[in-house]
Hints:
Layout: H1 4-27, H2 32-37, H3 44-55, H4 58-71, H5 77-92, H6 94-103, H7 110-117, H8 124-156, H9 160-207, H10 211-222, H11 236-243, H12 253-261, H13 268-299, H14 310-318, H15 321-359, H16 365-386, H17 394-418, H18 424-443, E1 447-448, E2 451-452, H19 460-477, H20 485-497
Antiparallel strand pairs: 1-2
Membrane topology: Multi-pass membrane protein
Keywords: Amino-acid transport, Cell inner membrane, Cell membrane, Ion transport, Membrane, Sodium, Sodium transport, Symport, Transmembrane, Transmembrane helix, Transport
Function: Catalyzes the sodium-dependent uptake of extracellular L-proline.
Amino acid sequence: MIETGTLISLAIYFALMLGIGIYSWRATQNDVSGYMLGGRQLGPGVTALSAGASDMSGWMLLGLPGAMFVSGLSAAWIAVGLLIGAWLNYVFVAPRLRTYTELADDAITIPDYFEKRFQDDSHALRIVSGLVIILFFTLYTASGVVAGGKLFESAFGIDYRFGLWITAGVVVAYTLFGGFMAVSITDFVQGCIMFAALIIVPLVAFGGLSGADGLTTQLNAIDPNLLDWFGGGIGALAIISAASWGLGYFGQPHIIVRFMAIRSARDIPAARNIGMGWMTVTIIGACATGFVGLAYARANGIAVEDPETIFIILSQLLFHPLIGGFLLAAILAAIMSTISSQLLVASSSLTEDAYRLFIRRGASQSELVLVGRFAVLAVALIAIGLAHDRSSSVLTLVANAWAGFGAAFGPLILFSLWWRRTTFAGALAGILVGAATVIIWVYGPFTWNGAGLGAAIYEIVPGFCLSAAAIYLVSLVTQTKPGSVATFDRVDASIRAA
């Protein structure tokens, strides 16, 4: 039986999200730039929390606490890598990408930017990168829908598959109508909710353990290795695999598109400070939730069948139903903020890089916005179909998609922004090699000591390295067409002036 207070909190949350969608629908210009990038008018605060909330999806409140619950401090290397990667992304990608995409004939999508950066009249870069976005974002979106299904099943006893439809339905509603503006404003609100929840839950659970001594006593009784960053004999490759999650930031379209939408490159330092402060607090809170939750569960004899539900369990045991509903809304916020961003980026790619390019070159702005809305719905339906497998792990699905984008796009984003000699052929080789390496690493028939290659090292490491090598070597061989050098020089001048 669902408590009345919990229902009230969730009803308020859903109403707020839908209200923002309606407001954004009325406030956004009915053109592609308005629907896909909000007219490049985001302030630093909205940019920072929107990037953070769309990044820290359901895995932040489900997957990462679950990993800490199972492995202890050794799982926190993921958090270390993510913090370093996010900071480097703000420093090396954000200012130049914001400037370059505007100067390169107002590029709206990442594939559009690649095509204009390398003057690709064949559209090969746009097609290949668009396919990569659609493939990996459909998988990524499915991970968020899985998290929503698990939430409704665990917290409310609602059928897992019905939970999938509730989660996706609300997200589709405000994304479909409000576009990028709705996604960004809801992300800001959702980021605030996540921030508060990831402070409250671990602190209250920690208080129930009689402080640090109670925590260490319970964890030592389970396994002393849980308190060791190198617990269980974790090796160098395992640490590299965990920390290498940070490499993925350079190639995540749903994150770096926020840099394209901020109103000015001059606002990026402020956005970086806000974003990194928010991320540091929330990621420490997520790790603490799993870590403290393990000790609390043992101390109180609580059976935890699925480690990825520890946040849900604590939120319902420790708080009044009204507060518990707010905390469940934080999980929905994490899930929905990422799904909406992914749906919009996949939709923009289908609209700009497929429909406009191959079906209706002369389509009006209002027609393209309508197509974008249909694309949001189509991708959501496919993701729901993929999410029907109840045994799917949120963290595993996210890891595969994160690696795919990080390896396919990350090296090319960096090379395209910082090395003027990068060529079209090098760019195409980098995308293909990075994506193919991840796919083979995850789904290929090769094994390491009887297990998949991912058991040896996270697939983003070989994918990122081989992609970077392909870009560099192929560009050296094909220096006859080094891309848009004139625009590159204008970007340099603009960054120096700022």
